[in-house]
Amino acid sequence: SLMSLPLCHPQLEGLCSFLQLSTCPEPFLVRFCSWLLPLTPDLSYTSAAILAEQLFLRRVLSLAQPPSRHLMAALTSFCSKYSHPFCRVLVAAVLQEPGEGAEQTKLMCELVEECLEPHSVHLVLSQVLEVPLSEKLLPVLQAVLGRQEVLPPELLDLLVLTLCQQAPAFAMSLNYAKLVTAVLTVYQSQVS
C-alpha cells in the first residue's frame, strides 16, 4: 500500500506524477480520496500538503466555472481530514493569484462555510490578513465571520486593525461596509 511505506517526499512527488494525480479524471480523484482518508496512521503534514498540491492546486487555480460535483466531493472529503495542510497550500495559492478569481473566491467561501474545522478557519483568516485586502477577498472574510467562531484575541485585533487601516481604500464598497457591520455584530463584546 502507498502509505505503509515510509515514503520520502521526492518519492511521494514521483508517485503522484506516475499516477498522474494532477490531471486524472475527477471520478478517480473522488475514489482516490475515499481510499486515502481511512489509512492509518494519518499522513504526515508534509505528505498531506504534497498531496493537496498534486491533487487540487492546478484544478482549483484553473477553475473558470463552478467546480464539478466530483471535484467538490474530493475537495470536501480531503478537507475533512487534512484541512490545515490543505489551507496552507490551496488558500495561499488562491490568495497570491492576481486578478478576480471569482470561482476560486466562491470555492474558498464554500469551504470556509461548510468544511473547515475552527482552527483551519482561523488559519484562513490569518492568511487573508497577510496579503493586501482586495474586493475579491471581502467575501472570504464575510464567510469567516459567518461561522461566528471565537477568534483568538490577537487575530481579532489584527482583523480590526486591518479593517481600520484599509477603510479609506474601501470608502465606496458595499461589501466592506457589510463586513465592518458583521465584525461589530459578531464580536461586539470584544471590540471597543
Automatic annotation (TrEMBL):
GO process annotations (BP): interstrand cross-link repair
InterPro entries membership: FANCE, Fanconi_anaemia_gr_E_prot_C
GO-annotated cellular components: Fanconi anaemia nuclear complex
Chain ranges of the Fanconi Anaemia group E protein C-terminal domain: 8-191
Name of this chain's protein: FANCE protein
Gene name linked to the record: Fance
